[in-house]
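Suppose you are handed a protein chain with no further information: no name, no annotation, nothing but its sequence. What can you learn? This example shows the usual starting point.
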Amino acid sequence: HVQLVESGGGSVQAGGSLRLSCAASGFTVSTYCMAWFRQAPGKEREAVAAVVTDGIKSYTHSAKGRFTISKDDAKNTLYLQLNSLKTEDTAMYYCTRGASYWGQGTQVTVS
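A reasonable first move is to predict its three-dimensional structure. Written in structure tokens, the prediction is:
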């Protein structure tokens, strides 16, 4: 069955970096649109970045230039590199397969 397991979150100071991972099982990440979303306390879940099957990547305005989405087909894993983190990036980060399957999330806290 489809499973997504995120990891890599943590607490960092503003300006720091983190790399989030999303290990997938039950399907091949290279054959689906994959994305990262985030949800801050009291706010709606919002998209951060996505990558489609032909490798084209897209980012929201807040993520562009600071975050990088990537896939490792051999490891069947999706990544999100977070650089130049700001306090407003504090949120639970989720990976998703086509907004149909979701992981449990990994917490990012920026102080």
